[in-house]
UniProtKB/TrEMBL annotation:
Residues annotated as signal peptide: none
E.C. number: 5.4.2.6
Gene behind this protein: pgmB
Source organism: Lactobacillus equicursoris
Protein name according to UniProt: Beta-phosphoglucomutase
Family: Belongs to the HAD-like hydrolase superfamily. CbbY/CbbZ/Gph/YieH family.
Residues of the site described as Important for catalytic activity and assists the phosphoryl transfer reaction to Asp8 by balancing charge and orienting the reacting groups: S115, K146
InterPro entries: B-phosphoglucomutase_hydrolase (IPR010976), Beta-PGM (IPR010972), HAD-like_sf (IPR036412), HAD-like_SPP (IPR051806), HAD-SF_hydro_IA (IPR006439), HAD_sf (IPR023214), PGP-like_dom2 (IPR023198)
Cofactor needs: Mg(2+)
Amino acid sequence: MLKGLIFDLDGVITDSAVYHLKAWQDLAKEIGIDLPESFGDKLRGLSRMDSLEIILEYGHKENDYTQEEKEALAAKKNDAYIKAVQKMTKADILPKMADLLHEAKAQGLKLALASASKNAPLILHQLELEDLFDARVDPATLKHGKPDPEIYIRAQELLGLEKNEVISFEDAPAGVKSIKAAGQFAVGIGDPVVLKGADYIVGSTSALDLAEIERVFKKAGN
Ligand code: G6P
Ligand code: MG
């Protein structure tokens, strides 16, 4: 029986993925790497340091920096990202998402956040959504990033629920893999080819319908 919903943040609740990409593009440019728009999809769901690594590899500069220098680069990107995020308001919540969260809450479902972002508390505050969530995984306490299942297992445990009692929402292939490795029902938001492996896929949050998702969840034997 469905008792809880678990959400990724960037690309699911709000489109902060565009701000991540812009901040990385600006940083990459400073070190001589021209990052195309299409790179944004590769960054979805990856931790800050993993994102920097794939950007440096793309620019063939992975051996040019010490660990300390890499941390300084990541910190610079984060400063720029925070400046952009501080301008966000509840108008930046993706279509239908606020309705879905409130509908779930009214049904008595528990809500958890499973975002790899250390800026998630700031973003939830900007979106005025922080009071809706019963639990939030602190990514600083995790050993492994997505696609490892750790973050979704932790979110489910924080809610005190079993894997067949939750539905988890993701926009990233690494995130869908993480949900499935945790044994949970995955709703993918985005391109069905990219998100193959999810149990239910919508092209965008505008197409989300909680009653329909619950129907498919039950039909799958949950
Ligand atoms: C999310 C985003 C990634 C981002 C990661 C870490 O998973 O999809 O693009 O790199 O969070 O975010 P942070 O705000 O901690 O740098
Ligand atoms: Mg995401």
